[in-house]
Amino acid sequence: MSVRITTLSENGVAPRPRGLLGEWGLSVLVEVNGLRVLLDTGHSMSAVNNGDLLGVEWNRISAIVLSHGHYDHTGGLRHVLSRIKKTVPVIAHPDVWAPKYIQIFKEEAPTYIGIPFQKAELEGLGADFELTHDPAWLSDDVVTSGEIPMVTDFETIDPGMYVKDGEALVPDPLADDQALFIKTEEGLVVILGCGHRGVINTLRHAQNVTGVETIHTVVGGTHLIRASEAQMEQTMAELMSLGVQRLGVSHCTGNAAGVRLAQGFGGDFFFNNAGTQITL
Ligand SMILES: [Fe+2]
Ligand SMILES: [Fe+2]
Question: Which residues of 212-247 are buried (b: 16+ CB within 10 A; e: fewer)?
Answer without folding.
Answer: beebbbbbbbbbbbebeeebbebbbebbeebebebb
